[in-house]
Design brief:
Blueprint: H1 2-8, H2 16-28, H3 41-54, H4 59-66, H5 70-73, H6 77-87, H7 89-97, H8 109-120, H9 125-149, H10 160-177, H11 183-228
Helix pairs in contact: 2-4, 3-4, 3-9, 4-7, 4-9, 6-7, 7-9, 8-10, 9-10, 9-11, 10-11
Length: about 230
């Protein structure tokens, strides 16, 4: 039992293949930024790889995390074949399982997302872990930006507000069906985002109500003043 415990605490071996993957991702995503921001896209890939390693992933899973968007955003099927040649079948399978579009322009947004949710039901544990890491970092970023910028955040996304909230709720529900170390964190952040949106909506309604009351009061005062002057 003690030997098993010691073994589980040993870190994965990280070497030149991971370095190669980092340089490959940096080259492929050069000049790309997060949706309508100045944040380099590479920062997202680094964050996802970090989450995968923190959740117990090994070097090949971290490589797949670094490359999880390279097919979708940098060349489609030819890029997937290149990933398989450079980094092996296991990495390519995970990257493929994190991809929801292989062509440019991409298929219609809602269709893509529904199809990806359907495919995710049959994905293996490694793919689900890398995918969950990707979505967790996405939602954390959306939540932080929403708290700072408000409703304007939704203009970045093809699904806008309702579609984006639906998608991440549907993803979290699916991940909870076969949980891993990241799925609970994802659920917590999705709930936080939903609550933040609901709270802002309530505040907006209260503000509109108060403005309406003040307008009605002002209108009554004007009428009284008019009647007094006659």
């Amino acid at each position: 039992m003690k030997a098993e415990k010691r073994k589980s605490l040993q870190p994965p071996t990280l070497g030149r293949r991971l370095q190669h993957a980092f340089r490959y991702a940096a080259d492929k995503h050069e000049g790309q930024t997060r949706k309508r921001t100045a944040v380099p896209y590479l920062s997202h890939l680094m964050a996802v790889a970090g989450l995968v390693l923190e959740a117990g992933g090994d070097e090949e899973m971290a490589i797949a995390a670094l490359l999880h968007d390279v097919v979708e955003d940098c060349g489609g099927m030819p890029t997937l074949r290149e990933v398989r040649r450079l980094f092996g079948g296991r990495v390519a399978k995970i990257v493929d399982g994190c991809t929801d579009a292989y062509t440019e322009p991409k298929p219609e947004w809602l269709q893509r997302k529904k199809e990806y949710l359907s495919e995710l039901k049959h994905a293996d544990a490694e793919t689900r872990l890398v995918s969950a890491a990707d979505k967790l970092h996405n939602v954390r970023t959306i939540l932080a930006d929403y708290r700072q910028q408000g409703e304007v955040v939704w203009e970045r996304f093809s699904g806008k507000k309702d579609g984006t909230l639906w998608y991440y709720r549907a993803l979290s529900d699916e991940y909870q069906r076969i949980p891993n170390r990241l799925t609970r964190e994802l659920e917590i952040v999705v709930v936080e985002l939903e609550e933040a949106v609901a709270m802002r909506a309530r505040r907006s309604k209260r503000l509109e109500k108060n403005v309406g009351k003040r307008s009605a009061t002002t209108s009554r005062k004007h009428k009284t003043a008019d009647n007094s002057g006659r």
